[in-house]
Design a protein that fits this description.
There is one protein chain. It contains 5 helices and 5 strands; from the N terminus they run H-H-H-E-E-H-E-E-H-E. It is an alpha+beta fold and about 190 residues long. It folds into 2 domains: about 80 residues, no CATH class; about 90 residues, Cation efflux protein, cytoplasmic domain (Alpha-Beta Plaits), CATH 3.30.70.1350. Helix 1 crosses helix 2 and helix 4 crosses helix 5.
Length: about 190
């Protein structure tokens, strides 16, 4: 929401600065022009039938309310936590970033034989971490055995090496690349 706040403030200031300067330097011509524009708008609105004018007013009011409610919700919601508390520390409080956790998991899993690619995504949940990992492995490995090794490595990395609690068991999406093709012998040889 920081970016939206900055954009709204910059656009608002860029619009109001020249308007205020012109209004303060020459108030009578500006106010006369605003009065004429207002009178023309009232005349134009009088040409529209009252029920249609009322209906258009309701539509524009609903659009404005939805936009204002969306901006208010974006402003008041809590941003997602990007840090998790390390529990295995004495004498103080230490937090580690979720990016660092992802990097540790990636490093540890890439050390396993048969692991080709790792894409972890961790999120903080009440001073614990929930981890989802997409893992691509070589096709010549036993999938249940490889999955068990991956789970054990993630749990060991989180709890022992990094020292954070797990909010839930890791979610692993395992994709096994096809095994390399074995060349066939020519027939009749």
């Amino acid at each position: 929401m920081n970016i939206v706040n900055r954009v709204v403030m910059v656009v608002g200031l860029l619009l109001t600065i020249p308007l205020c300067v012109v209004l303060l330097v020459a108030p009578i011509p500006v106010l006369n022009a605003v009065g004429e524009w207002t009178a023309q708008t009232v005349q134009w609105l009088n040409t529209i039938a009252a029920p249609l004018r009322f209906l258009l007013g309701i539509v524009f009011a609903l659009v404005w309310l939805l936009l204002a409610a969306l901006l208010l919700w974006l402003e008041l919601r809590r941003p997602p936590r990007r840090m998790v508390r390390v529990t295995r520390v004495d004498g103080g409080q230490v937090e580690i970033s979720l990016n660092a956790i992802d990097e540790h998991i990636t490093y540890e899993l890439e050390q396993l034989p048969g692991v080709l690619r790792v894409r972890p995504r961790s999120r903080a949940q009440r001073n614990a971490v929930a981890v989802e990992v997409d893992v691509e492995t070589a096709g010549d490995r036993d999938v249940p055995d490889q999955a068990t090794r991956i789970l054990e490595t993630i749990q060991r990395t989180l709890e022992e090496k990094i020292g954070v609690r797990m909010a839930q068991p890791p979610q692993i999406r395992l994709r096994s690349s096809p095994a390399p093709a074995v060349p066939r012998r020519p027939a009749g040889g």
